Structure formats: structure tokens, C-alpha cells
From TrEMBL:
Keyword Acetylation included in the entry's annotation: no
InterPro entries named in the record: ArsR-like_HTH (IPR011991), GAF-like_dom_sf (IPR029016), HTH_MetabolicPath_Reg (IPR050707), Tscrpt_reg_IclR_C (IPR014757), Tscrpt_reg_IclR_N (IPR005471), WH-like_DNA-bd_sf (IPR036388), WH_DNA-bd_sf (IPR036390)
Protein name: Transcriptional regulator
Span of domain HTH iclR-type: 11-74
GO terms, biological process: negative regulation of DNA-templated transcription
Keyword terms: DNA-binding, Transcription, Transcription regulation
CDD domains per record: HTH_ARSR (cd00090)
Record-annotated IclR-ED domain positions: 75-255
Pfam families linked to this entry: HTH_IclR (PF09339), IclR_C (PF01614)
Organism: Chromobacterium haemolyticum
Length: 255
């Protein structure tokens, strides 16, 4: 990877607000202002002002169980619920994913593209498979995720060029990465599915097939998580057939 860009525009108040919200999302218990300031590195005075604004807009709330401690507010849940409820693909995904899960006994995911990333929107975990550390809302860069590669494999050349240029400008990919990714996407386009190793952790392999709309544009990807250590090329081919079929069924249903 190249060095981080030095001229990237910044807005400290916005950056600090995001850092606070991210900290509270990941925290296992409500945090006080001093704890938030210490863990984020935000100066106490700035932290106080930002928390006041977030509290006023209901992005954070005071937790009644701990004095002057903050947790994620109701507005975050309202926004997330509104976005989640508008995803009309979900009702079609679950029955198809249930059949796929029962056939291959692996965890099945539905991911959607959001900007230059993919977000897990649906997750059916197989109790016969390993407990992979994946959850709804999990977000990864397009080029790191099997779902992202599956989606990119159906994109037009102009879109792909713009995406890769933007990732290089952000120093997320270098020229060698770009060439390797182009080869992977060409292979995914030819086979109908993409693969990654180490996407979630070093022991996990993911396979994904794209879901398209009536125009043939990719709108999502169906993926599965498999134990990388015991996965052979023959098993990948065996899993890819039902996976591609599930993605095609979902494509037909949303069309």
C-alpha cells in the first residue's frame, strides 16, 4: 500500500463525533465523558461540547444505570431501522438462503454495496458449521470482500476504472494491488462467483455470487463462509453451484 494522503480534507468536529459514536457502538457498557475523552484522544472541552450536541439530537443518550454515562441514542436506531426496512430484497433472500444453508450446511450472507464498501444486511448462520465472527451491519471495503468482488465483477469498465482510481487516491490500493484485483474480477466474471481467504479472519474463506436487477446491474451478493483450512478446490466447485443458483433465484425474484 502507498503512504497515506496528507492533503485529505478534514473536519475535526465531524471526525470527533464519528469517533465517539463508533466507540459507543462497540462499547460493552455505557461510558462517561472522561472515559470517552481518554479512549478517543479528544480533548475534554471538545468532548463535552460534542456530547452535548449529540445528546440534544438524540444520537447519544444518558444511561440511567450509570451516573453521567453515555450510550447510543434512539435516533441511531430510528435511522438504522428506516434504512433496514426499505431493503425490499430481504423478504426474498431469507427463504432462498434457508434452502442454501440446509443444502451446504454453511452460513449464508446477503451483502449490499454502499459507496466503496459492502455491508452485511442478512445473515443465516448454520449451526452445523463453525461459528464465524460475522454479523448484520459488518462492513468491508469492496476489494477485500468476496461479496464486493462479486459485485465489482459485473460493473461496467468505466465504473470499475473510477472505483480503482478512487481507491488508489485514498492509498487503499497500489498499482500491484490493482492489477491483481483486475485479474481476480475477470476470473469471477468468467466463473460466476468470487472468493477470498482471510476476509473475516485467517481461518475463513468466503465465496460470493452477484445478484443483478433487470438491467443487469449488480445490486447485492449472496455469500457463504467456509473453513479455509479444510477447503479444497473440489469443495469450492461443489459449493459454487448451489451458491450461483441461489443468487440467480434471488435475481429472478427481485426482477
Amino acid at each position: 500500500m502507498g503512504p497515506l494522503l496528507q492533503d485529505r480534507p478534514t473536519a475535526p468536529a465531524v471526525d470527533h463525533s464519528i469517533a465517539i459514536l463508533q466507540l459507543l457502538v462497540n462499547a460493552s457498557y455505557p461510558l462517561t465523558q472522561s472515559e470517552i475523552s481518554e479512549q478517543t484522544g479528544i480533548p475534554p472541552a471538545s468532548c463535552y461540547r460534542i456530547l452535548g450536541s449529540l445528546l440534544e439530537t438524540q444520537m447519544v443518550s444518558l444511561d440511567p444505570g450509570r451516573k453521567r454515562a453515555y450510550c447510543i441514542g434512539s435516533k441511531i436506531f430510528q435511522m438504522a431501522s428506516a434504512i433496514y426496512s426499505r431493503q425490499s430484497i430481504l423478504p426474498f433472500f431469507h427463504p432462498i438462503a434457508e434452502i442454501l444453508k440446509n443444502e451446504i450446511h454453511q452460513t449464508v450472507l446477503l451483502s449490499l454495496p454502499v459507496g466503496n464498501k459492502v455491508v452485511v444486511l442478512g445473515c443465516l448462520k448454520s449451526y452445523l458449521g463453525n461459528g464465524y465472527p460475522v454479523h448484520i451491519g459488518q462492513t468491508l471495503p469492496m476489494h477485500r470482500a468476496a461479496a464486493g468482488k462479486a459485485i465489482l465483477s459485473l460493473r461496467a469498465d468505466a465504473y470499475l476504472d473510477n472505483y480503482l482510481d478512487a481507491e488508489q487516491r485514498l492509498a487503499l490500493l497500489d498499482e500491484a494491488d490493482v492489477q491483481a484485483l483486475r485479474a481476480q474480477l475477470e476470473r469471477a466474471r468468467r466463473l460466476g462467483y468470487a472468493t477470498t481467504r482471510g476476509e473475516i479472519d485467517s481461518a475463513t474463506c468466503c465465496l460470493a455470487a452477484p445478484v443483478a436487477d433487470l438491467r443487469g446491474d449488480p445490486v447485492a451478493a449472496v455469500s457463504i463462509c467456509v473453513d479455509a483450512e479444510s477447503l479444497s478446490d473440489a469443495q469450492i466447485r461443489a459449493y459454487s453451484g448451489p451458491l450461483i443458483q441461489a443468487a440467480r433465484q434471488l435475481t429472478a425474484r427481485i426482477g
